[in-house]
Amino acid sequence: xxxxxxxxxxxxxxxxxxxxxxxxxxxxxxxxxxxxxxxxxxxxxxxxxxxxxxxxxxxxxxxxxxxxxxxxxxxxxxxxxxxxxxxxxxxxxxxxxxxxxxxxxxxxxxxxxxxxxxxxxxxxxxxxxxxxxxxxxxxxxxxxxxxxxxxxxxxxxxxxxxxxxxxxxxxxxxxxxxxxxxxxxxxxxxxxxxxxxxxxxxxxxxxxxxxxxxxxxxxxxxxxxxxxxxxxxxxxxxxxxxxxxxxxxxxxxxxxxxxxxxxxxxxxxxxxxxxxxxxxxxxxxxxxxxxxxxxxxxxx
Amino acid sequence: xxxxxxxxxxxxxxxxxxxxxxxxxxxxxxxxxxxxxxxxxxxxxxxxxxxxxxxxxxxxxxxxxxxxxxxxxxxxxxxxxxxxxxxxxxxxxxxxxxxxxxxxxxxxxxxxxxxxxxxxxxxxxxxxxxxxxxxxxxxxxxxxxxxxxxxxxxxxxxxxxxxxxxxxxxxxxxxxxxxxxxxxxxxxxxxxxxxxxxxxxxxxxxxxxxxxxxxxxxxxxxxxxxxxxxxxxxxxxxxxxxxxxxxxxxxxxxxxxxxxxxxxxxxxxxxxxxxxxxxxxxxxxxxxxxxxxxxxxxxxxxxxxxxxxxxxxxxxxxxxxxxxxxxxxxxxxxxxxxxxxxxxxxxxxxxxxxxxxxxxxxxxxxxxxxxxxxxxxxxxxx
Lengths: 300, 382
Known about the structure:
A: alpha/beta, two-stranded antiparallel sheet, B: 7-stranded mixed sheet
């Protein structure tokens, strides 16, 4: 990496992060997030606020004493007593090094690193533990889960040394994942979504009761295919090359690519995985706003 | 007004137009490898045939235009028959400008000095005062377009004329300003001084020449025998010897020296001889010798009264001086009498070359091309 490293999170993005909250899909059991019933007693239970009842809230969360006094339903919200663990699964295979011709200094991996840093920032603000697992040509690089500012610094250090190369590691080398990621942990996978092994991993994690979020990062060229001339295209992972004329294959490529995206969406949807697709020309926090924004998170 | 090309062969340079086109096509053919992870959804379809297609149209057109203009510049376009009816007012240096402007009227005419180069009046310093008026008038008349009217403002007394009324191709408004010029006293022409080299036989002519010098009121001639060289000065050298001329004479003649040689001196075979002075009886006295080495005068006969009776004539000194030293032509006249006449042939005007404007256009186009070529839009593509 070059010596002067730009900050991973731009200032405007950092200010918008305040309105976000990482919330797991399933609030459940002793490791739930925030919305505890008033009855439950446990260490660290701390009243936070009353909130008006909304359809969908569990009946047992309603504060009946307050109802008796005010004749209105209120839900008692409290600080989370047991933080969840957020695992950031970063695809660091060679395909992440792709960039747009229009913006050659902004690799897909750069956007992914910024996303990881944003998510870690969110987790740290909420007091959640967070860890990073980078999967690439160097195998599995793992930063075990932790909390606090020093954990964030360790994460940034690892991110800065990370480079995109090689292929998705084979199945047998993924065992550390299963050892570390416990049930009900929040797993955020960030990658291009082109590796079938990656999607399979997401499905298996989701089946094993991990709360999986899949963030797909696409370049503008993959979305728009702006090539007009004959070019030699190369797959950065396999090294395959293909001579093609941009103008003539564009329509076909776009239909096939959108079909593939639709199939991927359906697969993830069927596995119960929250997913979103971000593009390199968007703001970094745009997919996070769509997934974890106030509107999306109000149902927790 | 019509356009013509002074050097049409310059259009061969138009072949250079092929250059940017070829470079453009050659650059396009080089293929850049593009990383593309979504390769599996891309079908291989190489370009069916090479199409000639240009991108960067504005830049390419600009460069072609630039080259075309350079070729046109080489072909030297020029305009003929430019109608220029602007009035010119030429003022002789030494004329009071305020009076001249009052006399000529404050029109929007071009005001020029009647001086070499014809500088503009408000842009140049006042030139030297005595100017060759007639010569300048003819030059100005020849360089001005035929339709331009000319006014000349002169003082009442003109100096620098050439002994005749100027004949011009156009009618000139002749403005004479009453200006009292300082009266010059007439300059007397000094008689020529003599420097004589002689041999033994030439000695007998010396007395006549000494007599001539004293009749002219000139200093006594320097007289030595012919072994001594002539001095390098403006005096009239007289060679009274049968020997050929000294070797350095030719160079001295080229510098404008005047030489009068004896009849016994050998004349070069290829010399052209012109009779210059005959006496009343038709006897040739002095002839002119012209050779590639220079011109000089020669006594037609030895300086003896027997062969040259004119030596004894009372008018001999003054006649000899008239031959050796022509009287100056009259140069001063009253301006009113020297109104230029018309009737001289008018000169065709040279074509106006358009090169300065073309150069300006080329420079501007070049700047535009540089700006387009280095625009951030292109830097991003590279």
